[in-house]
Amino acid sequence: MQKKKEAAPAEKAGLWHTVKSYGSLYFVDAMSAMAQGLFASLLIGTIISTLGAQLGWELLVEVGNFAKSMAGPAMAVAIGYALKAPPLALFSLTAVGSAANTLGGEGGPLAVLLIAIVSAELGKLVSKKTPVDILVTPSVTILSGAALSYLCAPAIGAAAASVGGLIMWATDLQPFFMGIFVSVLVGVALTLPISSAAICAALGLTGLAGGAAVAGCCAQMVGFAVISFRENKWGGLVAQGLGTSMLQVPNIIKNPRVWIAPTLASAVTGPLATCLFKMQMNGAPISSGMGTCGLVGQIGVYSGWLADIDAGTKAAVTPMDWAGLVLICFLLPAALSWAIDLGVRKLGWVKDGDMKLDL
Q1: Residue 3, in any domain of the structure
Q2: Which of 135, 162, 189 is the last residue of a domain?
Q3: How many CB atoms neighbour CB 267 within 10 A?
Q4: Contact 285, 200 (CB under 8 A)
Q5: Coil, strand or helix: which one is 357?
Q6: Is the dihedral of CA 38, 40, 41, 42 positive or negative?
Q7: Residue 351 half-sphere exposure, CB side, CA atoms within 13 Å?
Q8: Which of 19, 172, 242, 288 is the S-S candidate for 210 at Cβ 3.0 to 4.6 Å?
Q9: Residue 51: what pLDDT?
Q10: What pLDDT was estimated at residue 1?
Q11: Is 281 in contact with 210 (CB distance < 8 Å)?
Q12: Residues 266, 249: Cα–Cα separation, whole Å
């Protein structure tokens, strides 16, 4: 009896470790991979087509449209790659991604995430278990994905779109408080090892809420780049300012107070974006969660301006638009984070070397 009592805690620990591992795999690794798939299709396609439209090169517009049309397959394959799906299951996910994204509507990315995970795992389950693997694995992967897409994707997509719509409606109604909420939340998600881009894409976050999300992400990236300059110099400035603030996660774990300056900066720039500059991000929703990474957030805002002009909802791009974009995305995050960090360092909460990166 004593042995059983001793084994119980170990069994619970083992179960918790398994749940934690799968949670990390499905909702960190898979989401991050999905964002990369979106970047390599919808986002880069939007950039190329926008560039083509501005230059008057119809060929670039067509190429960009081809890339955008492959968003579903690209997301699904990226998810399968993160889950280490075998080749036949991995390649079969192209059909699954197309079905889930199409039937999921505005919330297609979330539908792709959930359905691709299930289909990939089922494909892995039957892979190389029969002499006719070349038929069985693709069939199981595609048929399960297609069935789930028809049964679940519309509901998943509608739920995601409803949540995103609620956030955007609330931001329009209460731009100050929601500007703070969205900016801080999405900015924190960008720095954590989860995908803020995937979250924004899944929720279809655009409009004023999208602008607040851009502000929050920029505050984290530019903020960390500036306040850690004394430790990381120009390499760190570029790596964090144009790459990702996620590089600071190990330092945040060691001393969470290093996160104070960029997070407070996002709480200021968010409502300034929504209330003062009325900055909207009406490009691809994934751009809302990218910040200054490759200047994708800014390109998203700009492409949204052009789309609004084409739709007749915006007359022209104004000097106030440009001033808001530059101030919210670059100058204010840098100045606010620097000033707040000075105060934090004077309090002794952050010391030299606390934000050092291994570059």
Answers
A1: no
A2: 162
A3: 19
A4: yes
A5: coil
A6: positive
A7: 3
A8: 288
A9: 84
A10: 47
A11: yes
A12: 17
DSSP 255: -
What distance in Å separates the CA atoms of residue 195 and residue 88, rounded to the nearest whole number? 27
* pLDDT for the residue 244: 85
Using DSSP, state whether 292 is helix, strand or coil. Answer: coil
Same domain as 195, residue 111:
no
- The amino acid occupying position 354 is D
Per the structure, the complete domain to which residue 244 belongs is given by 174-346
Residue 185's nearest CA partner among 275, 284, 288 is 288
Q: Which pLDDT value is given to residue 10?
A: 60
Q: What is the pLDDT of residue 192?
A: 85
* Cβ proximity of 289 and 210 under 8 Å: no
Contact 171, 178 (CB under 8 A): yes
pLDDT reported for residue 111: 92
Kindly give the residue spans of alpha helices, DSSP state H, lying in the chain.
2-24, 30-38, 44-55, 58-69, 71-82, 87-104, 108-126, 133-173, 175-191, 196-203, 207-227, 229-238, 249-254, 260-271, 296-311, 319-326, 332-346
Q: Give the chain's residues under pLDDT 70.
A: 1-20, 359
pLDDT of residue 196: 87
Q: Are residues 181 and 148 in the same domain?
A: no
Q: What angle do CA 37, 43, 48 make, to 5 degrees?
A: 125
What pLDDT is recorded for position 343?
96
Domain termination residue (choose one: 103, 138, 162): 162
